[in-house]
């Protein structure tokens, strides 16, 4: 498990830095970083491993993270639409999932990635996920973001 | 000579990023078409010529693999140069794309330099 978590941290940090173009620090207390008065957004990508392993990775965040991410990806001078912001979050979870499964299971295993879904999350459910040992929290460009996973072996 | 590009990706943000990078290169850009999936891409290609296509793999409606298979069967489109830009890292899918004669395979996260380099190699010009 420690190896899994260290790879999970390493890849998550790399994707936030390389794809999101963000300065990233790992944070120990996920729940304390988030603003309870703001909406929680989540983007999930599920994957199926043809009998090896199924699961999903999700990115949990609030508006400041989405705004910073979308601005970094498209440039701060461009006006950003709500659709672009949602799309930036979905693509982050997509890139993250694609890289995590390759890192964990190697290039010889094929996975089907389902299209990313994003939605707002009930605060109580968000707290539960943020408290979970399956969730890592980061401070990215001074905004909180958490990355969580759920895995199941279908055999 | 001014070149025409097509970006096929279900993510508008990725299309926007690649579009921006294309405009940063030294090649003259005539037009950049966008499609959200392979089906839309093929529909547009039925009446538009492009010089280079950037293609995602995991897309709804028609994915990048199906798009390539149909493109290579079309006598008018079979020689169009295609560069895959995808999160997909499975070797069998990369190999299949190579069999379908894609010119390059870039994994997300890509860098602007990777896109400008591939344009420079395939269409000429120098990097911005």
The quaternary organization reads as heterodimer
Overall 3D shape of chain B: globular
The main sheet of chain A comes to:
7 strands, antiparallel
The structural class of chain A is alpha+beta
Helix content of chain A: 40-55%
Q: Roughly what fraction of the amino acids of chain A lie in strands?
A: 25-35%
Tell me the total number of β-strands of chain A. Answer: 7
Number of helices of chain A: 5
Average pLDDT of chain A, rounded to a whole number, is 89
Task: Give a short summary of the structure.
The complex is a heterodimer of chains A (155) and B (128). Chain A is 43% helix and 28% strand.
What does this structure look like?
The complex is a heterodimer of chains A (155) and B (128). With 155 residues, chain A is of the alpha+beta class. Chain A is 43% helix and 28% strand. In chain A, strands 1, 2, 3, 4, 5, 6 and 7 form a seven-stranded antiparallel sheet that branches. In chain A, helix 1 runs antiparallel to helix 4. The two termini of chain A are 20 Å apart. The mean pLDDT of chain A is 89. Chain B has a five-stranded parallel sheet, sandwiched between helices. With 128 residues, chain B is α/β, with parallel strands linked by helices. Helices cover 41% and strands 22% of the residues of chain B. Chains A and B meet through helix 3 and helix 4 of A and helix 1 and helix 4 of B.
């Amino acid at each position: 498990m420690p190896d899994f978590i260290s790879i999970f941290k390493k890849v998550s940090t790399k994707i936030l830095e390389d794809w999101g173009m963000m300065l990233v620090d790992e944070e120990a207390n996920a729940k304390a970083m988030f603003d309870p008065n703001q909406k929680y957004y989540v983007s999930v990508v599920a994957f199926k491993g043809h009998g090896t392993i199924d699961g999903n990775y999700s990115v949990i965040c609030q508006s400041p993270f989405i705004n910073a991410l979308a601005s970094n990806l498209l440039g701060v001078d461009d006006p950003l639409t709500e659709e672009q912001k949602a799309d930036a979050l979905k693509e982050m979870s997509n890139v993250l999932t694609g890289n995590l499964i390759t890192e964990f299971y190697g290039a010889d295993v094929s996975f089907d990635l389902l299209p990313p879904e994003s939605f707002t999350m009930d605060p109580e459910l968000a707290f539960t996920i943020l408290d979970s040992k399956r969730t890592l929290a980061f401070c990215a460009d001074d905004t909180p973001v958490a990355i969580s996973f759920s895995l199941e072996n279908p055999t | 000579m001014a070149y025409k590009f097509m970006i096929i990706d279900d993510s508008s943000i990725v299309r926007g990023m690649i579009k921006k990078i294309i405009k940063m290169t030294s090649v003259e850009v005539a037009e950049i078409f966008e499609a959200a999936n392979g089906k839309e891409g093929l529909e547009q290609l039925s009446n538009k010529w492009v010089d280079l296509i950037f293609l995602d793999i995991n897309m709804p409606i028609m994915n990048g693999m199906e798009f390539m298979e149909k493109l290579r069967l079309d006598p008018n489109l079979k020689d169009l140069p295609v560069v895959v830009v995808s999160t997909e890292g499975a070797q069998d899918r990369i190999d299949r794309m190579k069999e379908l004669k894609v010119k390059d395979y870039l994994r997300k996260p890509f860098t602007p330099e990777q896109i400008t380099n591939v344009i420079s190699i395939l269409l000429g010009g120098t990097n911005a």
